[in-house]
Design goal:
Blueprint lengths: L6 E4 L3 H12 L4 E4 L3 H11 L5 E3 L3 H6 L6 E4 L5 H10 L8 E4 L5 H12 L4 E8 L1 H7 L2 E5 L2 H14 L18 H29 L5 H11 L7 H11 L22 H12 L4 H14 L1 H7 L12 H37 L5 H7 L11 H10 L10 H9 L1 H14 L4 H14 L5 H12 L3 E2 L6 E4 L7 E3 L2
Parallel strand pairs: 1-2, 1-4, 2-3, 4-5, 5-6
Antiparallel strand pairs: 6-7, 8-9, 9-10
Length: about 475
Amino acid sequence: MTTQAQIGVTGLAVMGRNLARNFARNGYTVALHNRTAARTHDLVRQFGEEGIFVPAESAEDFVAALERPRRLVIMVKAGEPTDAVIQEFAPLLEPGDTIIDGGNAHFADTRRRERELREQGLHFVGAGISGGEEGALHGPSIMPGGPAESYASLGPMLEKISAKAKDGAPCVTHIGPDGSGHFVKMVHNGIEYADMQLIAEAYQLLRDVAGYSPARIAEIFREWNTGRLDSYLIEITAEVLSHVDAATGKPFVDVVRDSAEQKGTGRWTVQIALDLGVPVSGIAEAVFARSVSGHTDLRDASRSLPGPTARPLDEAQAAAFAGQVEQALYASKIVSYTQGFHEIAAGSAEYDWNIDLGAVASIWRGGCIIRAAFLDRIRAAYDARPELPSLLSDEGFAKEIGAAQDDWRAVLVAATQQGVPTPGFSAALAYYDALRAERLPAALTQGQRDFFGAHTYRRTDRDGSFHTLWGGDRSEVSTD
């Protein structure tokens, strides 16, 4: 091979193929490799006019096609398949070369791989890529973590292929060391789960309580998308709700089984939040809502349980209720992002990543699934106060969520009275009320723990740890 490629992509399923095409469309020469060589040649045959591709059938030819320092993107399934590809290519590379994992890897695996490859003199970049197959082709949001020196070489290429925000800024930044990029992508997906669940709850409330048809609800979502809820997910929700099934003539949502699936990143977000001690109750409820939907046998066995039946409102009441649902959706959405950014901040502190939360908000403004207009305000909030403890501490967001109070609570009252499940809305409000409470019942919890396990407690009036001798005269002893 005589043509030297500036970057290579191995793993040419839909995401890998589209990412390779994106690089080529932006003027880069791209080496191609796939375990099945036919897929490599199919890409060149179908899209060869989009740029310069260098197909390679063997790992050796693929590496030889790359200019030094080599940049090799892996786009295969997370876990063992990724490890297998790394083990295949690492021995063929030289110190200073970079391997980029663009899959949805667990950040702990990325930390391990970065450490192991660093010992071999190789750079390893774990790059979260959001936007699906369309984003991979036309411009995704990219969250690379790894050595700063590798970003100096790789960054300009990623900036060129990334999505661009409305102000023209590329939706990519160096997140931080080792697994930070995949950590941020994981939390991004957790927020995505919560956002989708909240939108789904708003739909169900508008349908079961307001009595609107899917087509009418689509119109409402289109209207919301012109205001503060402007986002990709609101936009596509309107499209889904307005779609009519060609085979039956019924609304599309009425012919789709109500059993949602998941690939694991939302679940990881909750698991890691538990490890870090960070409350992400809204994200957790979104994950559990998908789990509940999938237990069809359990749901079938429970349909005869007693409870209220939703009774649609009259026209005037329904219109007023729709406005209340918009308030509840927006307030709950703020809480979801608050929890997600809190987890990123906690992960950054735990692993010494020094993540810029404002920069994260900035690169989520385009390309990614959770892109939304109010991310501009989140970016501004963190830029103004990098140590902001919570989005709810920002004056602007606090004012908005305060204005939503009455409607938010009214929606949950209506949902409870009419038997419509709203785990996401409910968890968001419970989190908000927990933060603003003067006292929490955790004092009683600590008393119980001390009673049955001598776990000790702290007092409000003096320093130190204490234990009450519950079985005797109930005297108190210091345990410090």
